[in-house]
Amino acid sequence: MKKLLFITTAIIAFAFIGCIKKGILDNDTIIILPRESWNAIEPKEYKKHKPNKITIHHEGTYFPQDSLAFRHIKNIQIWGMRERKWADVPYHFFIDGFGNIIEGRDIFTVGETNTSYDPTGHILISIIGEYHKKQKLNEAQYKSLIKLIEYLRKRFEIKCDEIRGHRDYCKPGETDCPGDNIYELIISNKIKNQLRDCNN
Ligand SMILES: [Zn+2]
């Protein structure tokens, strides 16, 4: 049994390594790296919801776009569960600097926030890094964000107008999230214009 477990883990690990630095494979394939890729621990009890919105975040602290983020995500989980008493990592998906899409918490559960809005119904996507003053989305991240949004829209029938940034739900000045460099892509409709049937 132990040997079988080892072999299965080795195969999964090998598959991950293949995707890690290449990012997403092609236009029609979406690869979401599972929680096992960052060695997630079991979550606490979740509050359930039905996803009907997509809300884009940045993580808010500088993280190099040429570094793997698995250990970093694991640290967010440990910190959030210990210090904030969260059930798990706060977001449903992460996108790293290579454009890898990484699974966060269970999509049918309400995310967490440090601000005053109610994230019930929101699918939270977090781009790892600081996109207000310090970093800009690179091509791989942008493509993965569009691909993930398209996939989620299809899966949950999310309306074009329900794709927004974190600050759209907060009091003025409460948060810079998802950072001006990402927010500009949302309010200028650059993201929406890439999506099927969302053209203005
Ligand atoms: Zn945010």
Please give the largest β-sheet: 6 strands, mixed
CATH fold-level name? Lysozyme-like
Q: Helix count, per DSSP?
A: 4
Secondary-structure element order, N to C: HEEHEEEHEH
Strand content: 5-15%
Portion of residues within helices: 25-40%
Radius of gyration from CA coordinates? 17 Å
Number of strands: 6
Strand pairing plus helix content: what structural class? alpha/beta
C-alpha end-to-end distance: 56 Å
- Based on CA inertia axes, which overall geometry fits? globular
Query: Under the CATH scheme, which class?
Result: Alpha Beta
Strand order of the largest sheet: 1-4-3-5-2-6
Instruction: Report low-confidence residues grouped into runs of 5 or more.
Output: 4-11, 17-25
How would you explain this protein's 3D organization?
The protein has 200 residues and is of the alpha/beta class. It has one domain (2-194): Peptidoglycan recognition protein-like (Lysozyme-like), CATH 3.40.80.10. 30% of the residues lie in helices and 12% in strands. It has four helices and six strands; from the N terminus they run αββαβββαβα. The longest helix is centred in the N-terminal third of the chain and has 19 residues, at 2-20. Zinc ion is lined by residues 57, 166, 177.
